[in-house]
Amino acid sequence: MEEGMSGGFCIQTPARRGGSSGGGGVGTGTGTKCGRWNPTAEQVKVLTELFRAGLRTPSTDQIQKISSQLSFYGKIESKNVFYWFQNHKARERQKRRRVSKDSALLHHQPSCPQQLDHHDHIRPTAHDPPPTKYFTEINQASCEPQGAIETLQLFPLNSYPEPEPWKLRMFSDELKENDAAFACTIGRERDHPPLDLRLSFF
Amino acid sequence: MEEGMSGGFCIQTPARRGGSSGGGGVGTGTGTKCGRWNPTAEQVKVLTELFRAGLRTPSTDQIQKISSQLSFYGKIESKNVFYWFQNHKARERQKRRRVSKDSALLHHQPSCPQQLDHHDHIRPTAHDPPPTKYFTEINQASCEPQGAIETLQLFPLNSYPEPEPWKLRMFSDELKENDAAFACTIGRERDHPPLDLRLSFF
DNA sequence: ACCATATGAATGAACG
DNA sequence: CGTTCATTCATATGGT
């Protein structure tokens, strides 16, 4: 949460990632109203209409326009609209995927269960902004290490190296012996000495 | 989705999560079922500091170094660092672009009684458009009642790495107003003026 | 009160 | 780089 921390500083989970000393006391709600956006009925209605009309991934401009219009019905920010569409779309697909699972159960098809079709666009004007390329390999099928392994291997998976795809860009490192250094010392009362992170950049 | 992540460890349970609607009980908390990198508070802090110090696109070497150092606090890979910076940078811009509007035109109809509309509470420590100099910003996870005070010392060696690289080019108004428009009129009940939501998408 | 669900918000990972 | 997807966390709300 560098700067995320939306909802002000209200009740953010004390330390969820640290894993240490799970502070779990979340019971007290202290129902501060202004914690997260609570859309009004009208806002939801408009958003739903837009979604049903086929709008799935509004651009930044669209988001702002929508937000502006909806602000008439109550407090709203652009990011709310953004998240709304993100969530709505994701949840719909999520549900869809769950349903599509049972069908695979019948066929016992070892191959990939074929991703759910993505033609749920109800375009009012036959427009097609994004060709909808969500072709994520939802494969990831059961991580069952054992069991009937009848997966047809077309080609060895770990044949070619493919070490770090994310490093494909990185041009030649021009690390110079610069004097500028950034030292960050974080000392926690843990069982380790204060780490002295010293990086030279530029 | 490879999920292999160079090594293939963690047999992450394939989204079982009680069947649906993640979250749920608060008890789940840090399931810490590794499937994807879950940075620790210390790691996030260091990364954030580096970012604040001006590091935006670390080179391969820098990524390696950072990853090495941060591995002390928990499992981490180079690609995590790489992605972290990518995301952080992208989201900052994205957010800033979104926040820019929607504050001027607030019709703010007295539909909702209570609502001290200071919708700036979302960013407790708003980022720094102006030159950033204050490094006493340890404002993360403020709700930590624990006595675990992390002593983060940041001392510039030469001079504070004044992040001058804030001269990112802004591709202003690259989008043209298309004539395709979608009008959504929601005037079901007459309890509100017939809002004519007209959005031009695509 | 607790539990269950719905949903807003955040972010890691990846794609184009 | 900007965008998109998936997953997870957090919270508001309603049912029992």
Write the element-wise H/E pattern of chain A from the N-terminal end onward. HHHEE
Number of strands of chain A: 2
Oligomer: homodimer
Mean pLDDT of chain A: 60
Q: N- to C-terminal separation of chain A?
A: 26 Å
Task: Describe the strand arrangement of the main beta sheet of chain A, using strand numbers.
Answer: 1-2
Rg value of chain A:
24 Å
CA-based shape of chain A: extended
Q: Beta-strand level of the residues of chain A, as a percent range?
A: 5-15%
Roughly how much helix do the residues of chain A carry, as a percent range? 25-40%
* Biggest interchain interface, per-side counts: A-B, 96 and 103 residues
Q: Structural class given helices, strands, pairing of chain A?
A: mainly alpha
Largest sheet properties of chain A: 2 strands, antiparallel
| Tally of alpha and pi helices of chain A | 3
Uncertain parts of chain A: 1-32, 109-158, 170-180, 187-194
Structure at a glance:
The first copy, chain A, is mostly helical and 202 residues long. Helix content of chain A is 26%, strand content 6%.
